[in-house]
Amino acid sequence: MYNNIVALRFILSMHNSVLKYLRKVRIALFSCCQVFPLLILLSLLLAMYKPCPAQNRITVEGTVVNDKNSPIPFANVTIKGTDHGVPCNAEGHYRVYAAPSDSLVLVFSAIGYTPTEYTLKITGALKYSANVTLQTAVSHLEEVAVLSTQRHFGSIERISPKDIQFIPDVSGSFESILKTLPGVSSSNEMSSQYSVRGGNFDENLVYVNDVEIYRSFLIRSGQQEGLSFINSDMVEGIDFSAGGFSAEYGDKMSSVLSIKYRQPFKNAARADVSLLGFNGLVEGVGKNGKFTHITGVRYKTSQYMLSSLDVGGEYNPSFIDFQSNLTWRFSSSFLLSFLGNYSSNKYQFIPTVRETRFGSFTNALQLKVFYEGQEVNHFETAQGALSADFRPSDDVLLKLIASSFRAREAETFDVIGQYLLNELDNSLGSSTYGDSSINVGIGGFINHARNYLDANFYRIEHLGTYSLDGNTLRWGLRHQMEEIRDRINEWDLIDSSGYSVPYNGNDLILAYHLRSSNNIFSHRLSGFVQDVYKFSVNKWEITANAGIRLLHWSFNNETNISPRASIMLKPNWKRNIAFHLSGGSYHQPPMYKELRYPDGSINPNIKSQKSIHTVLGMEYQFMAWERPFRFQTEVYYKYFSDLIPYKIDNVRILYVGENLAKGYAQGIDFKVNGEFVKGSESWASLSLMQTYEDVENDSYVDRNGVTHYPGYYPRPTDQRVSIGLFFQDYIPGNPTFRVHLSGFFGTGLPFSPPNSTRYDVYARMPAYKRVDIGFTKVLRDNNGNGGTLHRKYPWLKSLWIGAEVFNLFDFKNTISYLWVQTVSNQSNQSGQYAVPNYLTSRRVNIKISANF
């Protein structure tokens, strides 16, 4: 009784705080608030409503706990002999309905625990209780699976992370898993950013514990990026969709990634050390089991990897991230949790010299640049979210989230360069083969920037869930206040042969100049309602999802309505096959970067980019070589309107600031995963994709005075073919020696000169090719098998050491181009040359990991 009073007082105090907060913004939101009181009324009605079970069925409910008597959240409960089942809630509680019979066998399972069957004798009553304890699974060394996936619902793929630390990856980010999935591509190993089915980096939704995560705004290259938000050691569950996702997810056009952080059930610690940094983790449970904490700290330095770039100098990157997830359980119906994060990414670089060879055999060129100056960047972010989960009944869950996000970003550099562009001697047998034979251009440049940005986001959000008779109704309402201030001042001066470029003979003209000062203050109000209904027809299992999403943005007074729906069919066939169809309307209102014209000013009439998705997919589970496999495929078509055209330079996206284009993306994805080597799960994916856009009413006049209308042209993310691979193996008879290999191939992306106003003039980069491999020796496993280590250090739960070879075949991959301008030289030539900026070359990393 006391705990319920405490919970009620807390909710009332949060309610009063919310009311004070909303009073400050009621004028800006009045025009759209009339739509959403129905949602609040619905929440209250459902919270008070307690359904009665039907008379022609029985009800079984209970709690699933572990051997420490702590609840196991989201454990699975199924009725043996059928596909009918339910997941437990976050407190380990479940309720399942079944037809009357003499006996009932329930199967309980959860990741990391041994499945257990429970036989229930039916005595004629309509309600039964079954509380079950699951034992921690014993992990044999032969089972070295890294990742298992299953189709959760329609286009949503649920991924269970296992031993993610074994995947060789330069960035050390969680997103390395996604880059091997179908429809996902990335051509930069230094960055955690990814594009999905023709979208760009800004079109991906990311949630952690139902809180939306944002990335930095001013970052322009992968080496500046630092650590991504997601801490792999804290992850418990992953849901990912490459398109066609439901209305409960927010307002982006490409994909959604939803992460759940785990709640620990015992005291433990973990540490990883490598040449690229350090990860530490501490987790624990209070004496009474009501309080849990998991806290991680990460430090990354990419100095070792950056030393392999063409630009030599003194690299001093330092990336630090601190993250904590705390939970307090006041009662069985009330849970309070807090997620906090602070990251500081500092990047200092003093360049000295660059030497890049490029071109073809018949036209080999070399660029040599001598530098002065330095670059100093600091990207600081902090995010906190306080969540209250209240369960007035077993069928209703009400959640209130108050969160904030803060970013402080500074990008400053003054770099002077003097360059020589020479043609190389390509005559075989020549005594000067490979040396400079003729000077193509000589010049210098100055790059200057003093860019600062402050961003503050404040959110209050309500989420609700109500379940009854195969229906799961979800709803949500969110208000977000945004405040962004920027001070941008950057310019480039180019000098070639004593003339500034561009040259008019009288004035000193900068090749590029951007100066702006903007203050943006706005509100976003969004809400959704959706229902998931599961039923069967002639033993065909059918799951239908239908919902609608609304969004209003005060900046341009725009209101968007997005209906979305999906259906999944599982026929009663001998083969285990399922089909799904999903689609709907998706709107992406602009954030900071999309609002800006190229001159830095703000477009007050900007509109949301819009997309209509249609996704058709199939999943086939089968056995091969007496081992489980899964084959998945999806075909999709997306139509775009009100697009804001852009160009990509490394990871920097440069928008034109206007809704000028329409377009489309179409393609097909394939994936097969399973135990290609017994006991080890691997997978391979293949994606074929085409994405085009058309700037409406654009034209140009050629030298003969003829007007041309270019029509459709490839978007900057038009990567026609991409292949992802992850494979692992171990030495037969000695599974403590393991090998992990990841690979990626992607055809070349379109690019164009930075000052070109014609979108149909483009070339393609070379294909991106990369293979990373890791070798691991397990010195002690989780079962305590470790010889002398087990006897001398009983507190050491596991220990392994590994070696990783990045870019095994030393491919030279291009991420962007440095555009070198010349005026005249010995050959009386003039023009602009695209010098490739290459990514990292082959490097070896040593890594040690221990669990305590």
Describe the structure.
- The protein is mainly β and about 850 residues long.
- It folds into two domains: about 100 residues, Carboxypeptidase-like, regulatory domain (Immunoglobulin-like, Sandwich); about 700 residues, Maltoporin, Chain A (Beta Barrel).
- It has seven helices and 48 strands.
- It has a 22-stranded antiparallel β-barrel. Strands 9-10-15-16-13-14 form a six-stranded mixed beta sheet, with no helix packed on it. Strands 1, 4, 7 and 8 form a four-stranded mixed beta sheet that branches.
- A hairpin with a 2-residue loop joins strand 20 and strand 21.
- The longest helix is centred in the N-terminal third of the chain and has 23 residues.
- The chain starts with a helix and ends with a strand.
- The N terminus is likely disordered.
Brief overview, please?
This protein is mostly beta strands and 852 residues long.
Keywords:
Immunoglobulin-like; 22-stranded antiparallel β-barrel; disordered N terminus; 852 residues; mainly beta
Break the fold down into its secondary structure elements and pairings.
Elements lengths: L1 H23 L1 H8 L3 H12 L9 E9 L9 E4 L5 E3 L5 E6 L4 E7 L6 E6 L5 E3 L2 E3 L12 E7 L2 E6 L22 E2 L9 E2 L7 E5 L2 E2 L9 H4 L9 E7 L13 E7 L6 E7 L2 E9 L5 E10 L2 H4 L4 E21 L2 E26 L4 E30 L2 E29 L11 E33 L2 E26 L2 E3 L10 E26 L2 E14 L4 E13 L5 E13 L3 H4 L13 E16 L2 E17 L2 E4 L2 E4 L5 E17 L2 E16 L4 E2 L5 E2 L4 E2 L6 E11 L2 E13 L3 E2 L11 E2 L3 E13 L7 H5 L5 E9 L7 E9 L8 E8 L4 E9 L1
Parallel strand pairs: 1-7, 1-8, 13-16
Antiparallel strand pairs: 1-4, 2-3, 2-5, 5-6, 9-10, 10-15, 11-12, 13-14, 15-16, 17-18, 17-48, 18-19, 19-20, 20-21, 21-22, 22-23, 23-24, 24-25, 25-26, 25-27, 27-28, 28-29, 29-30, 30-31, 31-32, 32-35, 33-34, 35-36, 36-39, 36-40, 37-38, 40-41, 41-44, 42-43, 44-45, 45-48, 46-47
